Amino acid sequence: MFVDSHCHLSSPELIDRVPEIRAAMAQAKVDRALCICTTLDEFPRVHALATEYDNFWCSTGVHPDEEDSREPSVEELLGLAALPKVVAIGETGLDYFRLNGRTPAEMEWQRERFRVHIRAARASGLPLVIHTREASADTLALLREEEGGQAGGVFHCFTETADVARAALDLGFHVSFSGILTFKKAEDLRAVAAFVPLDRCLIETDSPYLAPTPFRGKVNTPANVPWVARQLAEIKGLPVEEIASVTSANFERLFNRTMFHEAQV
Length: 265
Ligand SMILES: [Zn+2]
Ligand SMILES: [Zn+2]
Hints:
By secondary structure, the protein is α/β, with parallel strands linked by helices.
């Protein structure tokens, strides 16, 4: 059984297809998924998925790319984090890919938002789901300054270097690989995946984006996460069954959630 540790099922591409997607997941032996929140406005839809289905959970947070979105306070995030089936803070982090003519120095609003999420994660005891793009040095610096390692979490959809992976692991974080791992030109990333210890690896789809080979360019769903696992199995020289069981155990340990875990803290 496989776990998709990061998907956007409340996205417009997927929200109306949930029953069909769940059937495909069952067929593909994908038994759990973490539904990721990107804005406070989206949160009720993400949370509804998690409360409606036993094997879905959700996060709460505001994505660094959502510039015009309402800013959360630590208190507001803590309130949402206390709701049933909310198991992570994020996705949060830094993204300097779309600067729109600005310099990273002018992205203080993003760094401040990230600090708020780290503080909420520490105060709630929930792990962080971290998004970092062209901003790894600042992402790591802020995590150190705010002692984000105390919350722990995952660097999702990892595309950084082995040095960044080493730094994330040293801070106590997990590293999650997406369909990018299957892309033809991703040799460097496959080398990073070879380096990250399996007991700190997660797998994800980041649906509806980043469909793995052979579905590249199509709408992605959690049912495709076994393709990431198969690629990781090839890299590690292990049977895919072992990749499935270890990454699932890692998910349970990190988010403290097994399939039909009903008790909520
Ligand atoms: Zn992301
Ligand atoms: Zn995402």
